[in-house]
Amino acid sequence: MLVIARYACATLPPALFLGLGATLWGGFAIIALIWLTLFAALLDRLLAPPRPEADDHEPWSDGLSLLLAVLHLALLPLVLVALTGDMLGIGQKLALFFGTASFFGQVSHPNAHELIHRRPRLYRALGAAVYVSVGFGHHVSAHRLVHHRFVGTADDPNTPQPGESYWAYLPRAWTGSFRAGLSQEQQRLTRRGKAPRGIENPYWIWSGGALACLGAAAWLGGVATALLLLALWGLTGAQILLSDYIQHYGLRRLTLTNGRLEPVAPHHSWNAPRGFSSYLMMNRPRPFRTSHAPRPPL
């Protein structure tokens, strides 16, 4: 429990500050933004990164993951209402907007990523709901069906090409992962003898859920609220793809003599072992499944 308590101490306060900033006093939003930026940078210099643990399951880890996902889903409407309301000043609104985007990209994404790899269907559904709420539901399909299989190759849209800048990578990976994930889902349904564009294709959920979120935002506060949601989506998606860009830049899997790709191994991804950021981004103390193996330091 001691290890998970460290993750809780890193991840729960900014969620609390953002919620308070959206409902009580905008100064809390400024505190949240400082926590996720300056405070994190300072503690990264002072704290050691978490050690890999032998146990595959740390007590209380499931509870923390579920709580963070629920907090994410609760924060989103609260923040949108606050951003279009009259309670906050312009500086407080900017802090709330960028603090929320940072929390979604640095905490909600790693946590949802953990959930979509879990066995209980409820956990996977909750992780998928988090991605849908930030307009990135297709990541559930693309990450599991494409990235895990083709990482470190030209067939993975989320693996940067040699010499490719992040700004060139961003639109290519965004659209490429959407299309590649859709193709894999259609092939999967075809192999099962089902219609590739039928209702069982989860892309109906990824796309329909995003449209439903936009509609709910417009209902809450009109076009301005929907546009703010789109802006939050853009910043969150950019952070999700930035993590893949940094993690896999310059690393390629070799083609073996039998024509197959070498198995995914720790040396196919980078890691920056920073003390506080590791806890903030849910670098959980458990074995990295498949492509989640421990990574070499950057």
TrEMBL record:
It is a multi-pass membrane protein. InterPro entries: AlkB/XylM, FA_desaturase_dom. This is Alkane-1 monooxygenase. Its main location: membrane. Keywords: Cell inner membrane, Cell membrane, Iron, Membrane, Metal-binding, Monooxygenase, Oxidoreductase, Transmembrane, Transmembrane helix. One of its GO terms (cellular component) is plasma membrane. GO terms for molecular function: metal ion binding; monooxygenase activity.
